[in-house]
Amino acid sequence: LALLAVAAIDAASIAFTTYKLSDVGAAAASEGARVYRRGHNVRETCERVAQLLSEEEPTARLTRGGCRIEGPTGMVTLKIRKQANTLVAHRIQWTKKFARVIVTETAGPPSL
User: Fold this and answer.
1) pTM for this one?
2) 3: buried, middle or exposed (CB in 10 Å: 19+, 13-18, 0-12)?
3) Tens digit of each residue's pLDDT (9 = 90 or more) over 76-101
């Protein structure tokens, strides 16, 4: 019964981390699309996205190549990773990959 409780707590932690990271990623991608639309500067856009990400979720990071912008459309795609706060999942070799949450979010420029 205790093992089941620990597994449920870890699963809830991973789910909450995924939800939070997805929410922050969507907001950062939208902001990135807005910044790119204003100046068409890829470096400035990715720097702003990284800044917003560190403000909203300090332990989350963009993956390598995690900020991509489609020039013609202005679509910004972010790939963000974070380690979920689990009790045991991050300590066991064959469950570590489940505790490392990676989300991909895409947003386009605002239509207004």
Assistant:
1) 0.85
2) exposed
3) 999 999 999 998 888 888 888 889 99
